[in-house]
Amino acid sequence: MRRHLKNLIKIIAITVFVLYCLIWLLSPVIANYVINNHGLPKGYSIVSSSSIRYNPFMARLSISDLELQLKEKGTVLKLENLNAEIHLYQLLFDTIYIAEFEVDGVYIPVVAKNTSLTVAGFELINGEAESDSEQVVENENSESPYKLVIPNFDLNNATVELEHLDKNHHIQLNSLSIEDILLSQKEQDLQLLLMSKINDAPIRLEVNAKLIEQQGLIDVALNVDEFLLNHAQGFMPETLKALNGELSYSNKLSVKLSSDSTMINVDSLLLSINNFHVEQGNFSVDIASQQVQSDDLLVTLIAETPANIAASIVSKTNGVLVKTITGNEQLVKIEDIAVEGVSLTVAEDIPNVAINTLNVSDGVFSQHSMNDLPALASFKQLAINDIGYKPNSVSIQDITLSGLVSNLLLDENKKLATLISLNETQASTADTQALVDEKDSEEESTLANTEVKESDGSEFAFSLGEFKLLDDAVIDFKDSSVKPHYQRNVQINTLSLKDINTAKPELESLFNLQGKSDKYANFVVSGSGQPFAEKQSFNMNAVIKEVSLPGISSYIKNALKYEIESGQLDVKIKAGLDGSEINGDVDLLLRGVEFTAADDHESGTVTDQTSVPFNVALGMLKDSDGNVELSVPLSGDTSSPSFGFSGFITLLVKQATMSAAKEYLITTFVPYASVMKVAMAAGEYALKLRINDLNYLPKQVELSTEQLEFSRQMSVMLEDQSDINVKLCAIATPADIAATSAEEAHLPDNVERLKAISQQRVELFKDYMVEKLNVTSAKLLLCTPQIDTSKEARSRIEFVI
């Protein structure tokens, strides 16, 4: 019996041995057959040279030269070598012990599209397929009695060819080494080292982790060198036309897990971008180099409580250039931007940012590239110190500015020539932006409503300790819209503004301005006030001396029909504002003022034969030294555009004052520049306001764009001047009915036709003023329609105050 048992054991052992040998020897053939005929979907196959061998004696799996192919697509997976060995006896001790795990020479193509993901030819995600969102995972929290132990896992020479939205990305894993892997329900331990390249950018990742019952420490070190940003453009919005640059990143962080919290501590973080270039719409931004560094960043996560973040950050940026793509116009150029001492804290979801200094060096704004015009503005140094930000407040200790130069050059059309127009730029991006806006309009509307509701609780506060100039600021002004061209240089020696705080309305703010203009004119302006109080109050003292008057003739000669031949102006202003009530005095001193007739007389103006010569009238005001001294008390309510002026001896004094006081004339009538004009009444020594005619093209009845703007300005004037009524007198010309002569226009039928056109024009104008611009109808009085058959006549509406 014993001998039979012994023989049976031998037979079984021999059978098992032979079977193991057959498995070892025949496993490549069997594996290839089973995989090709039963293991792969239709169209997939592995090449005959692929070898998959299993050694049952050592529980070792060896794969070599594996190549998976798909019909019409070729090779979709390559694996040169794989060796894996498991110690089966360790299963008796509830341990899966993989003694050896080595992979070498892997090639995997990946195709990612908007709704699908294909890996090695297998479609893993299909956007058209229905997701089984109701699938229930059972025994999710059940404990496994086994633990996984891998002394060493090596992956070498792995290549992933990623095609994302028609962009190709090359991912090369040179080596991935994981040592001392221990994974169990209660304990996890590993050491990982990854050496890789993404689009030829080296990446190094080190991870050391040791956890016991989900508590412990994880150390991570990551380095990325010179990653080309153009490879990331496919992941950006479609409106981004170009993205270039080299990104480098390194950090060392530790994650500490405990039973009630998670702490992430970043010991060192460095992000740098070189040669950055981005294009969107008609704008491009270039940055030569930028660095963001943090040596102390701590994130604390506690269950069921908001995250706490504390960080110290330093940022440096060099060579910033913003320009338009069309025309290559330079909008902004900044040499250096340095942000130091940035402290970020987030407690209970409330961010708090503190910045020690923000320095901006060598800034240039609005620089045309196609002509020799200077930049609109430039400065040497802008420093902002002690910045504080909270969700409902911004505070700044002080702002200093040096080397400020501004060039305000007006062209023939009174447009700022040194300002780069963005109208074409906005038009070029309008279609794209409209598409984005339409797509997100509902979201933005909902978000805006939410933000409004959230912001109703508290008002935003802003405070500024002081703003000042460190050196002289220069402003060059030239107006080419008048003849002769007007040019003035202003040099500001002192400019300071102190104690601005919206949260403390009772705090008195201080203002000081000193400087000079051209060679001899100078000015000093100082003031104080409470701009944020419920009842505002201000006090101002201003002294302006030696302002040369001949230069301003270009602005007043068309209105007054006189030019200033010589003279200087001194102005002293002492005024105060309490609520809306203003009180003060303006003292004017005109030295050596002489007038001469304007070089361009229009028909209907006062002539030398019908009026008192202006210099004679002015001479009545001069003292023994040939000067004119005027005192103009200011009083009134600022809510009304008219203030009370007294102290004028006669109407002639008004005439002289308005002729000499350049600032008053310009400031007063700028709002109605296209509506009002100043004229000298024949035989009188006073200025009168007249309303410009509203001209029409022949046969035109409806209001044009320019006429609508004229109407708007006129409505503002009528609203401000509540005691003014205006007669509307419409006048037609023969051109309105294509009449060729005055005789033809005076035929009875044609007269009626012309009057009908005039009546239609004036009624449409009044309807627009009353219905659209809310002008009181009683202020607009209609005249009987008229015709004008003179040679140079134009169809128009005349206004009589």
Structural class: alpha+beta
Q: How confident overall, as mean pLDDT?
A: 82
- What proportion of the residues form beta strands (DSSP E)? over 45%
First-to-last CA distance: 140 Å
Helical content (DSSP H or I, runs of 4+): 10-25%
Residue ranges: pLDDT <50 for 5 or more in a row?
A: 129-138, 427-432, 450-457, 600-612, 641-670, 680-687
Largest sheet: 6 strands, mixed, barrel
Number of helices, where a helix is a run of at least 4 consecutive DSSP H or I residues: 10
**Quaternary class:** single chain
Give me the Rg, rounded.
Answer: 42 Å
Shape: elongated
In spatial order, strands of the major sheet run: 19-20-22-24-23-21
How many beta-strand segments? Answer: 38
What would you say this structure looks like, in words?
18% of the residues lie in helices and 52% in strands. It has 801 residues and is α+β, with helices and mostly antiparallel strands. A hairpin with a 3-residue loop joins strand 3 (60-70) and strand 4. The longest helix is centred in the first third of the chain and has 38 residues, at 2-39.
Show the helix and strand layout.
Elements: H1 2-39, E1 44-46, E2 51-55, E3 60-70, E4 74-87, E5 95-112, E6 116-119, E7 122-126, E8 147-164, E9 167-183, E10 187-198, E11 201-212, E12 215-228, E13 240-257, E14 261-280, E15 283-302, E16 308-324, E17 330-347, E18 350-367, E19 377-390, E20 393-402, E21 405-410, H2 423-428, H3 430-455, E22 461-469, E23 473-479, E24 486-501, E25 509-517, E26 521-530, E27 537-548, H4 553-560, E28 562-578, E29 581-597, H5 614-619, E30 627-637, E31 644-645, H6 651-660, H7 662-669, E32 676-680, E33 687-691, E34 694-695, H8 705-720, E35 726-732, H9 742-745, H10 748-772, E36 780-782, E37 786-787, E38 796-800
